[in-house]
Specification:
Elements lengths: L2 H4 L3 H19 L3 H4 L2 H14 L13 H18 L4 H18 L6 H24 L3 H18 L5 H14 L8 H21 L3 H24 L4 H23 L1
Keywords: Membrane, Transmembrane, Transmembrane helix
Length: 258
């Protein structure tokens, strides 16, 4: 096997290894608050390795993603080290989401630019908040990233989107030993999930892009409710699958009709 065939996957491998190492180390040190950051740290490293750069003056949309998640991981680390909850935590999380939305929207610096991008800014911040409120642990993050990876592979635009989603999946799987998440652990993953889902919508904006972006959030928000109605031990995974796959089925039907 040629080494060139493996190079595109180095970001996925880095995300898995870093997440496992971070989560395992701090579990051994009995610092569960810091161990939970394994997925966010792994995601940041994986994306940086996959794209091969972290730049403060990105020219294309994917180039904005590594710095975005690195910033989210740093905010999560501050929250974890502070160990506080309540208003201060909520305020810092909101600032992190707002900063991520501003950066992904192009970093507007003048009032005309802010007015022009205000709808996009608010939508991106709301998408990040939806992820933050719904992500409760690495299992949900892995399911969301897997759905997004499947949708991007089948219907996404050209570019590194699929590999970035797989790196997100690997980072979540690496953090599986940790268990439940608080705000600090969920924040960088929520920012990354929102950015990755919104990227093709901002770049191309087709109907398929909107539906693919909806799949992970449908699973996160509707999956538990559907699982509760189904009941039983298999109810929850079935509910998640039904909720997440429904938007992708619509995309498939849309493609078949054309």
């Amino acid at each position: 096997m040629s080494i060139e065939l493996l190079l595109p996957w180095r970001g996925v491998a880095a995300a898995l290894v870093v997440a496992l190492a971070w989560a395992g180390l701090f579990r051994l040190l009995r610092r569960g608050d810091l161990a939970g950051l394994g997925a966010g740290i792994g995601l940041a490293v994986g994306w940086a390795v996959a794209l091969g750069l972290v730049t403060g003056t990105p020219r294309q949309l994917p180039e904005r993603l590594p710095a975005l998640v690195i910033g989210g991981a740093l905010v999560g680390l501050v929250l974890a080290l502070a160990g506080r909850r309540g208003v201060a935590t909520a305020l810092l999380a909101v600032l992190g989401l707002a900063g991520a939305a501003w950066w992904l929207a192009g970093g507007p610096l003048t009032m005309p630019d802010l007015h022009r991008t205000m709808v996009v800014l608010l939508a991106l911040a709301a998408l990040g908040a939806a992820g933050l409120l719904a992500l409760r642990g690495p299992v949900g993050a892995a399911a969301a990233m897997a759905l997004l990876a499947a949708g991007l592979w089948l219907f996404g635009p050209p570019g590194p989107w699929v590999l970035l989603a797989l790196a997100g999946l690997a980072a979540a799987l690496g953090a599986l030993p940790v268990g439940g998440w608080g705000v600090a652990a969920a924040l960088p993953v929520a920012i990354g999930l929102a950015a990755l889902a919104a990227g093709p919508v901002l770049a191309r904006g087709g109907t398929a892009d909107w539906l693919v972006a909806a799949a992970p959030f449908a699973a996160l928000w509707l999956g538990p409710a559907l699982g509760g109605r189904i009941g039983g031990r298999a109810g929850e995974p079935i509910g998640w699958a039904l909720a997440g796959l429904l938007p992708l089925m619509f995309v498939w039907l849309l493609h078949r009709s054309h």
